[in-house]
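Supplementary Text 2. Reproducibility record for the structural model of the 152-residue chain.

All settings were left at their defaults, and a single model was retained for analysis rather than an ensemble. We include the record here because the model underlies the residue-level annotations in Supplementary Table 4.
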Amino acid sequence: MEPRSKNMKHPGQFFKMKIHMLVCGILILYPLFAFSGHNSHLRPGEMQSMVVEKCLEIKQGPFQGKRKFCSDESKQVYTVIVNGNNVSITYSTVKIIGRFKNGLLLTNDPKEIEYRQYAKKHNYGKYYILKPNYFSVLNPENGEYSFYKLCK
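Retained model, structure tokens:
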């Protein structure tokens, strides 16, 4: 018996892509059929564009390009470069590579990997928090985040 496709090296990846496309399709088409509730003031096109933006944010991250983040409390400056769903975080002489997966930022940072070993699964991807206007890094000793905003 011959496999379905000779080019299909990772069938699990193909299945995840199909599920993501199905969910985004439902989210895009749903407002057209159920046009009521708290968003009834929006036209169908506006609602649809909001849903498309949310799907892209989950897939690609909160922004694209290069941004620098600074803190009022420390002199540490983080440079974050987002290209698609790939992320590069640089500070001092350290360069960390990461990737957005299901809306979470997972990196190769040894501190994050150690944190993942002891944290439960619902904490995965929460070591670094990246949003368009701020960046936060978890301090695993006390569970608080160091907050960095866009540099001026």
